[in-house]
Automatic annotation (TrEMBL):
Entry keywords, A to Z: ATP-binding, Ligase, Nucleotide-binding
Name of protein: RNA 3'-terminal-phosphate cyclase (ATP)
Source organism of the structure: Anaeramoeba ignava (Anaerobic marine amoeba)
EC nos: 6.5.1.4
GO biological process: RNA processing
Domain (RNA 3'-terminal phosphate cyclase) ranges: 14-342
Catalytic activity: a 3'-end 3'-phospho-ribonucleotide-RNA + ATP = a 3'-end 2',3'-cyclophospho-ribonucleotide-RNA + AMP + diphosphate
Keyword Ligase tagged: yes
Annotated RNA 3'-terminal phosphate cyclase insert domain residues: 189-292
InterPro entries membership: RNA3'-term_phos_cycl_insert (IPR013791), RNA3'_phos_cyclase_dom (IPR023797), RNA3'_phos_cyclase_dom_sf (IPR037136), RNA3'_term_phos_cyc (IPR000228), RNA3'_term_phos_cyc_type_1 (IPR017770), RNA3'P_cycl/enolpyr_Trfase_a/b (IPR013792), RPTC_insert (IPR036553)
Taxon lineage: Eukaryota, Metamonada, Anaeramoebidae, Anaeramoeba
Length: 377
């Protein structure tokens, strides 16, 4: 696809939330668009406009690419970015609320892997907060799928942070794709057999220890009742201390592994007036549904892989459960921005998402790229 000088995105269509920003801005930085404008930001939300998490994320990647940003204010409904070159180095970003750190990783990871040199990020905010992936799901589920694309990143949880104060800390260490190299296509279409269940149950010092224990025991009980005793289960209990957590919270992340390398994740947060047993059940139930639908990628990881499929070289494919609106939105915008071709089809109880990626090469100027294409013909 030709390099575009200007693109305007309508942030109110389909899911109409923050995800449109986290997809469009990295694409325009990586592909070096002249200018991107996003209008009607989060136009499908009751309180539209940029909130702290979105604002921090956009400012972070703008700093990394030494771009020029306009409209980067709280509640702004229009954003304009003129990207420049992605630079290596160390960067910090603090949402200053419980705004999700994992959604910061969502906007940052596609950008930092296309840097000329390593990037280290220190991100602060909520690590285990509602309506976003838990940090444990990023570390134990998303990162292994990213490795399959050839992405070399390490995500390290330094301190958990919860609603309403956030103040958790996550580090991301990234080695860039080698100059002239591309992401590899992935193929996760055969789940094979369940090989094990893993998980993490965490709690902060002010939560009684029996809560953590009961969540773990209930999760194990539900798994054994459903899948029998033969599949190994290993759920770690983490009683976080004052150094490793800020604020108060508890929760669980569960993972189902298959002998073909698939990992399905699911999580739940503890809540006042919700029993420990119910917290375990809230993580267990969607996991079972995803396993029963024969998915190789779970319902919340689906949309997060779309941008990488589009940038990779060759045909990527994965099998998943019902397509979420987030995934449909990601496909819509990534297609518009990259020119990659997506196909979705129902196959029995699951869906296949297939993409012919554009094979974007890291660190090549337009001239290098044209020369390479001529030589390949
Ligand atoms: N329970 C969950 N577990 C894991 N991932 C989740 C969960 N809920 C949402 N997500 C993921 O978090 C992201 C949320 O995107 P979304 O656009 O809704 O968020 P947002 O930026 O907070 O904006 P908004 O407030 O506009 O919804 C998506 O990638 C979605 O798949």
């Amino acid at each position: 696809m030709e390099k575009k000088n200007f693109i305007e995105i309508d942030g109110s269509i389909l899911e109409g939330g923050g995800q449109i920003i986290r997809i469009s801005i990295p694409c325009s930085i990586i592909l070096q668009y002249g200018k991107i404008v996003i209008k009607n930001i989060r136009g499908n939300r009751p309180k539209p406009g940029l909130k702290r998490q979105h604002l921090s994320g956009v400012q972070l990647v703008n700093t990394i690419c030494e771009g020029t940003l306009k409209g980067d204010k709280l509640d702004s409904s229009r954003l304009e970015l003129i990207p420049s070159k992605i630079q290596g180095g160390s960067f910090k970003c603090d949402v200053k609320t419980a705004g999700s750190v994992t959604l910061l990783t969502q906007i940052a990871i596609p950008v930092i892997i296309f840097s000329p040199s390593p990037i280290d990020l220190e991100l602060s905010g909520g690590t285990n907060v509602p309506l976003s992936p838990q940090i444990d799901e990023i570390i134990y589920c998303l990162v292994p799928y990213l490795s399959a694309f050839g992405i070399d990143i390490e995500v390290v949880l330094k301190r958990r942070g919860f609603y309403p104060k956030g103040n958790g800390i996550v580090e991301v260490h990234s080695q860039p794709i080698p100059k002239g190299g591309c992401l590899k296509a992935i193929n996760f279409t055969e789940f094979g057999e369940l090989s094990k269940f893993t998980g993490v149950v965490y709690s902060t010092p002010t939560i009684p220890q029996h809560v953590n224990k009961r969540i773990k025991e209930q999760a194990e009980k539900l798994l054994v009742e459903k899948f029998g005793k033969k599949i190994p289960i290993k759920i770690d209990q983490r009683y976080e201390g004052k150094q490793s957590s800020f604020g108060q919270g508890t929760g669980i992340a569960l993972f189902a592994h298959s002998n073909t390398g698939c990992i399905l994740g699911s999580s739940a947060l503890g809540e006042r007036k919700v029993s420990s047993e119910e917290v375990a059940r809230r993580a267990f139930q969607p996991l079972v549904e995803d396993i029963e639908s024969n998915a190789c990628v779970d319902r919340h990881t689906q949309d997060q892989l779309i941008i990488f499929m589009a940038l990779a070289e060759g045909i990527s494919k994965f099998r998943t459960c019902e397509l979420s609106l987030h995934t449909q939105t990601a496909i819509h915008f990534v297609t518009e921005l990259t020119g990659a071709k997506f196909l979705t089809s129902k196959d029995g109880s699951s869906w296949i998402i297939e993409c012919e990626g554009i094979g974007h090469k890291n660190g090549l100027s337009m001239k290098d790229r044209e020369e390479l294409e001529t030589n390949q013909k």
